[in-house]
Specification:
By secondary structure, this protein is mainly beta. The chain contains no helices and 14 strands.
Length: 196
């Protein structure tokens, strides 16, 4: 969502933070993330490039065994074409730690990416009863990273017009007050006066 081509490019939600706790009673000798050694004397700034973003070590506390990190998404992800927000399979970084006694342990830092969705904003047109209103209902909407494939619902005052999975319109308005051309995607409403 926060990528330059996402639905909220001015936000900083493309970056998340977290930590891993390493339990080594004799102390930690080394840590590697995806095979890259972390400089335990100067850990901050160690960066591991992932497939869709970068993982950066931001701190290490040998007393508590806490390794802090941040992850910044740098590219969009392909995800299942399902309606609404969904979690895309993101990144998996392998963590390997070696204790001062020679013992080893492994774990993973798993990053999940929440898909953004298009955001529709209300449109308004005022006309006399004998006139027509026209305009682009998408002009003030936010497409999100995936773009807008179709308009699936329109409301006109107390009436709704929903595009169902068969490509027809479900509405609480009288069928005499609207028509829908499936070939062009044009919905004409005469009860409220307008075309979408």
């Amino acid at each position: 969502a926060a990528l330059t081509f996402g639905s909220d490019p001015s936000s900083n939600t493309e970056t998340t933070t977290g930590f891993v706790t390493i339990n080594a009673p004799d102390g930690v000798a080394s840590i590697a993330i995806d095979g890259k050694a972390v400089d335990l004397a100067h850990p901050a700034g160690t960066t591991i490039a992932g497939t869709h973003g970068d993982l950066t070590v931001t701190g290490w506390d040998p007393g508590s065994g806490k390794l802090d990190y941040s992850y910044t998404l740098t590219d969009n992800l392909i995800h299942p074409a399902v309606q609404g927000r969904n979690v895309a399979e993101g990144e998996d970084f392998a963590v390997a730690a070696t204790g001062k006694d020679g013992g080893t342990g492994t774990g993973d830092i798993v990053i999940e990416v929440i898909d953004d969705v298009p955001m529709a904003n209300a449109d308004c047109a005022i006309v006399c009863r004998c006139g027509d209103a026209s305009g682009n209902v998408l002009a003030n909407d936010v497409p999100g990273a995936d773009g807008i494939a179709a308009i699936v619902a329109v409301t006109d005052g107390a009436h709704f017009y929903d595009l169902n999975d068969k490509g027809a319109i479900d509405s609480n308005d009288s069928a005499a007050n609207y028509s829908y051309d499936a070939a062009t995607g044009v919905l004409t409403m005469t009860s409220g006066g307008g075309t979408a």
